[in-house]
Backbone:
């Protein structure tokens, strides 16, 4: 058993175990009843050692010992018709019954092996994906936002130790990796070395710092975004290699303060934060206008302009001094 690949939880279609067992039991009972009816209909071709007539109970008894290949021999087929019925009808039913029993056993024994093989195949094809370290409420919101932004569902992988979080992965339809994201072996199973971006959302800042250091060591070029709960820990995450650090506490505080001043702005921000909302904040390249200057495409509201990773003053936007290499942060309708 490969313990490393056993960490991976691929999304599976929901199945009702009770319904599956009921179907198999129902099929087995149906085969027994089928054989019993055949014997009952052709009861004249069977002999019971007790020398009594073949009752329906005797037929059921004969069917049960026949399908289980017990064969006590107390009821036997003596006529040509009964023997033909055994060959043509009862024997195929007995084979189907055995296949049903053996198939159920083999399925139970090989289910985990199939999952491991599927995990290996998935891992070999994994690249340019997003890894979410920590799949609590924040991590789940990240996944939903990525999906709303057009990221393919097979390009999102989540890491968490909590079984409840892994169940949430299954509900959303993304792959979950069970384990501690501070361990390189777990990060490797999530394909961090081939990832496009890594989002770090654990419950503790010290854990976030450790994950940041590990991810940056394994993949120096990956886009790394981390969340911080305490403002004093932001610089640790930045020094550890995070490209962007989100101050969760300060962000919520500013949002609450904004709510005391204006309703409209809060509605806009809520719309931005809602994965299914109407507005989306994106970063794009400027396009060349008819006047020879670079501007945002039609239908985009410019929020800020970025040059070499820094936000330009609003006066640059007002003058239209945008370069082709600049990046524009704009609001768009979904």
Residues:
């Amino acid at each position: 058993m490969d313990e490393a690949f056993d960490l991976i939880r691929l999304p599976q279609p929901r199945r009702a175990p009770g319904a599956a067992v009921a179907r198999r039991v129902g099929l087995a009972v149906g085969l027994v009843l089928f054989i019993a009816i055949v014997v009952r209909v052709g009861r004249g071709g069977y002999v019971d050692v007790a020398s009594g007539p073949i009752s329906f109970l005797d037929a059921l008894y004969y069917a049960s010992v026949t399908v289980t290949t017990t064969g006590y021999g107390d009821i036997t087929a003596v006529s040509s018709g009964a023997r033909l019925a055994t060959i043509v009808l009862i024997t195929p039913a007995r084979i189907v019954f055995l296949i049903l029993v053996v198939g159920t056993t083999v399925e139970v024994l090989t289910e985990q092996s199939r999952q491991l093989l599927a995990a290996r195949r998935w891992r070999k094809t994994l690249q340019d994906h997003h890894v979410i370290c920590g799949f609590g409420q924040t991590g789940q919101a990240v996944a939903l936002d990525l999906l709303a932004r057009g990221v393919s569902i097979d390009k999102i992988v989540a890491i968490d130790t909590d079984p409840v979080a892994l169940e949430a992965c299954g509900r959303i339809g993304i792959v979950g990796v069970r384990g501690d994201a501070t361990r390189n072996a777990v990060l490797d199973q999530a394909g961090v070395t081939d990832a496009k971006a890594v989002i770090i959302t654990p419950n503790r800042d010290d854990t976030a710092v450790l994950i940041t250091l590990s991810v940056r060591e394994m993949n120096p070029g990956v886009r790394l975004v981390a969340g911080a709960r305490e403002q004093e820990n932001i610089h640790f995450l930045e020094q550890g290699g995070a490209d962007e650090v989100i101050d969760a506490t300060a962000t919520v505080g500013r949002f609450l303060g904004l709510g005391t001043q204006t309703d409209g702005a809060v509605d806009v921000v809520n719309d931005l934060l809602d994965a299914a909302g109407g507005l989306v904040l994106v970063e794009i390249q400027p396009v060349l206008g008819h006047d020879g200057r670079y501007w945002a495409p039609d239908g985009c509201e410019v929020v800020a302009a970025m040059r070499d990773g820094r936000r330009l003053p609003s006066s640059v936007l007002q003058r239209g001094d945008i370069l082709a290499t600049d990046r524009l942060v704009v609001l768009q309708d979904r």
Remarks:
- The mean pLDDT is 82.
- Residues 130-252 form a domain with the Rossmann fold fold (CATH 3.40.50.720).
- The first helix runs from residue 17 to 41.
